[in-house]
Amino acid sequence: MQQAFSPVNPLTLPAWQSLQTQRAAMHGFSMPAAFDLDPQRFARFSLSHQGMLLDYSKNLIDVPTLDLLLQLAAQAGVPAALAAQYRGDIVNTTEQRPALHSALRRPAHGQLMLDGHDILTEVRQVHERMAELVAQVHSGQWQGFAGQGITDIVNIGIGGSFLGPQLAVEALQPFACGGLRCHFLTNIDSSEFYQISRQLNAGRTLFIVSSKSFGTLETLKNAEAARRWLLAQGCPHEQLCRHFIAVSSNVEKAVAFGITEKNILPMWDWVGGRYSLWSAIGLPIALMTGMDNFKAMLAGAHAMDLHALNAPLADNMPVIMALLGIWYANFHGAQSHAVLPYDNYLRSLPDHLQQLDMESSGKRVRHDGQPLDYSSGPVIWGNIGTNGQHAYHQLLLQGTQMVPADFIISARSLNPVADHQQWLYANCLSQSQALMQGKSLQQATEELRAAGMDEADVARLAPHKVIPGNRPSNTLVLPQLDPHHLGALIALYENRTYIQSVIWGINAFDQWGVELGKQLGERIYPLLNSDAGTAACDSSTAGLARLFRAARCS
Ligand code: F6P
Fold first, then answer.
1. For residue 316, which of 85, 149, 311, 471 is within the disulfide window of CB 3.0 to 4.6 Å?
2. Is 514 in the pocket of ligand 1 (CB under 6 A)?
3. Smallest Cα–Cα separation from 485: which of 414, 382, 380, 433?
4. Confidence of residue 2 (pLDDT cuts 50, 70, 90)
5. What is the tens place of the pLDDT at every residue in 340-358?
6. Could you give the residue numbers annotated as active site?
7. How many whole angstroms separate alpha carbon 91 and alpha carbon 81?
8. In which element (H, E) is residue 128 found?
9. Distance (Å, whole) CA 126 – CA 279
10. Averaged pLDDT, 141-153
């Protein structure tokens, strides 16, 4: 396998240095004034792909800034890095692996050789097995221990083996077929198991144990709990195989757990967990919406990959979004980035993007192991837009931090009710406009005077009503939320994340940080049973362990 492009230290790039000068020159830049001066600003700073529109005109940029950002992408080798990733070069340098989630969504022809295997053939075979499974479950041919068809599927998995499937199952609810209910069992907190299992009829439930490693504590504990529960509900031991499917790259461990080999769908080490919804980890999506819709989602993602690979940098949606992220994180000191979908079906998008982006970009050293002396990824957060307006948008509008935001909305609702979509759209636009325009002291003063307030009260209240404005946002408009555009949207963010990692010179595909908590958890667990060993640990952990033991005994 070929090693990828050579990563750079962005601080050494001429464009980075020019951007620092540009940032100083942009001091005092006013977005409202820029809109007034340039009636073409929206046209100039927006682009579309697959019917999706990205309006990035409400950003702290002008033409020279954008030119410099594009030069930064070119100097950091973004086009070559995209090609390297797509080709299957080793882009995950610490684990010496390619990151080929793009291969999972390529059309069903052609070849891609990796270590002597054509992985596209393997992907096609898995899709065929998924299609068979979906057909068996939908037709009632797949039966539980009591000879009844399946009504409920329970995906047992966490992180990437949960968040992507959850997002897509929720987002594509209007496309549901097969009449199944889908549950996601993720947490080791037994309350979650209790709440889900009490809704189920054991004889009609199919558990999908989704774990790339088949070594994740939460998933294994929940799978064991599911097995115990099935047995307690009267499932004979030899019939357990009718209730378990596994998706894993560790077939041996899944077999050792007791899952029948023919019920195990493979995964590959060249797919990262947070990029895995396109693999058989997406089985819940296929079961809930049908294989055709699953494939339409793959096609949308593939089209976005081709766009990322082939569109000139200036017309490239993920490149533009990545560069704006860098502009704010590295030149404006932004510490967080809000994702605000104005679409109930996209309510889990921020959660999925949190893992996608923060596990990928939360790095402190470059590929060469040298510490970063610049910021990498910001905190990603967000929720349904309209709800946020009545909660945290106050901070976005008047807080002391600048939080760049992505507003995401569909032009058409799939469930129109009166003029709700129009109001939803108006709300979305009003928020990005308020962030951009703000309200000056003079405007606030005039408003209060016009309301008949006396001068003393006007002077007292007006400063509290000032909204600084000039706060950046993107608006992404989807024609409608369907499988194709959902695929494109998720792949847009995947490509954005990778492009940023290329510019920062970091590995977007490993996650060593999360290992420490897992290791320490193993050491702390025995302390909750006995005092032995507490002397060797810090007083906080020892004290909290003592409290747990006491609570259990009382
Ligand atoms: O703990 C983090 C993580 O390793 C994620 O990267 C991954 O998506 C998740 O755990 C689940 O891992 P697995 O699919 O191997 O159970």
1. 311
2. yes
3. 414
4. low
5. 999 999 999 999 999 999 9
6. 359, 390, 518
7. 8
8. helix 119-139
9. 8
10. 98
Taking the C-alpha atoms of 412, 417, 422 and 424 in order, what is their torsion angle to the nearest 10 degrees? -90
Q: What's the CA-to-centroid distance between 158 and ligand 1, angstroms?
A: 6
> Tell me: the pLDDT tens digits for 445-464?
999 999 999 999 999 999 99
Model pLDDT, residue 399: 97
Query: Are the beta carbons of 410 and 489 closer than 8 angstroms?
Result: no
Q: Is the CB of 222 under 6 A from ligand 1?
A: no
Q: CA angle, 64 as apex, 61 and 70 as ends, to 5°?
A: 85
Element containing residue 42 per DSSP (H, E)? helix 41-44
Question: Which amino acid, residue 175?
Answer: F
Q: Which residue has the tokens 């499937």?
A: 165
| DSSP sequence for 479-529 | S---HHHHHHHHHHHHHHHHHHHHHHT--TT--THHHHHHHHHHHHGGGGT
Ligand 1, atom 13, lies closest to the CA of: 211
Q: CB–CB of 439/462 below 8 Å?
A: no
Alpha carbon 371 to chain centroid, angstroms: 26
Whole-angstrom distance, CA of residue 376 vs CA of residue 371: 11
Pocket of ligand 1 contains residue 158 by CB under 6 Å: yes
Sign of CA dihedral 484, 102, 317, 375: positive
- Give distance in angstroms: CA of 226 to centre of ligand 1: 20
> 476 with 407: CB under 8 angstroms?
yes
- Out of 92, 97, 158, 507, mutate this one to test ligand 1's pocket (max ligand atoms within 8 Å of CB): namely 158
Judged by DSSP in three states, 38 sits in: coil
Does this complex have an ipTM over 0.90?
Answer: yes
pLDDT at res. 259: 96
Round to whole Å and give the CA distance between 539 and 554: 22
Count other Cβ atoms within 10 Å, centred on residue 134.
23
Q: Show the CA angle centred on residue 280, arms to residues 277 and 283, nearest 5°.
A: 85
